[in-house]
Design a protein that fits this description.
mainly alpha, about 240 residues, about 85% helix
Amino acid sequence: MLILYILLILVASILQASTGYGFSILATPFLLLFFEPMEAIQINLILSLFISIVMIGKVKVDVDQKVLKRLIIGSIFGLPLGMVIFLWLPLNWLKLGIGILILVLTVLMIAQLKMKQTRNRDYGAGGLSGTLTTSIGMPGPPLLLYFSGTKTNMEILRGTTIAFYLYIYVISLTIQMVAAGTTQTVWLASLVGAPVALIGIFLGQLLFKVMSQKFFSIISYSILLFTGLYLCINQLFL
């Protein structure tokens, strides 16, 4: 289990550093196999926050401050809703619903569905991201789907999402620990994962320097399809 955990954190960290959103989307489904739901979500939040802190200095020049502000405002309404969902809705139902939603929206994006970026949609994306962060620890899908649909430049997408995560992970982790408590396992696993994440950040930075916009899009859609399929199959057949 330890080797698999280390490999998971390494690959997820590489994706996070190179794309700005890969860690939670890839790590959370597998962490749920190794740990209790509360522990898996908190480990994900702690390591994601750690990665964001390490990377913010490198990407802050690419942050769209106006969009970031609207995402944060939107998330204020989504964060408490996500905590209510986590405490009251069966996790299996939640994961299945999210998996189906991710698959449907990703297919639409691959089919070149485009949307115009607006203030209200920025707020909405932030709200959905906040809801998914406190409920299952996955803020990435709403932002990735939204920014992909608006054809946002990959540098701006990466910088803005990492800056947003820096805020939302602090708030979400605080809400999680106050409402659901925490365990020693959470902090020991996070301690083991932190140095592995540093290696992943270094490798991800190298990958980002040589990655084209087209390759970036392929990675984005692949991650979303994998995540959606995994969530659905895991709930329906496993």
